[in-house]
Amino acid sequence: MVRNKNQWILVAVLAVLFLGASWFCLSVWTATPSMPRYGNIVLAAAAILVLVLGCGLIALMFYSHRKGYDEPARSNRTARD
What are phi and psi of 20, to 5 degrees? Predict the structure, then answer.
């Protein structure tokens, strides 16, 4: 929720930056020639691979946290003098 003047200014600046970046991306996209079919296939395969790898790593992070592998090492020994 936007509450004060500074937040409104921040939202306005971010919106202008977003619109400018979107305009630039669209102008570059339309000015360049289209990618060949094999390029689209490679790009889609890479995107799927990155998505699967990221999901797998996050799943491993949750698994190791629940099993207690992320806890600091503890010892039952008492300190020696």
Answer: -65, -45
For residues 11 and 2, the answer to whether their CB atoms sit within 8 Å is yes
Q: What region does 68 belong to: left with phi over 0, alpha with psi -120 to 50, or beta?
A: left
Distance CA 3, CA 28 (A): 37
Please, which pLDDT band fits residue 1 given cuts at 50, 70 and 90?
Answer: low
Mean pLDDT of 46-75: 87
Query: Which are the contacts of 2, defined by CB distance < 8 A and separation ≥ 6?
Result: 8, 11
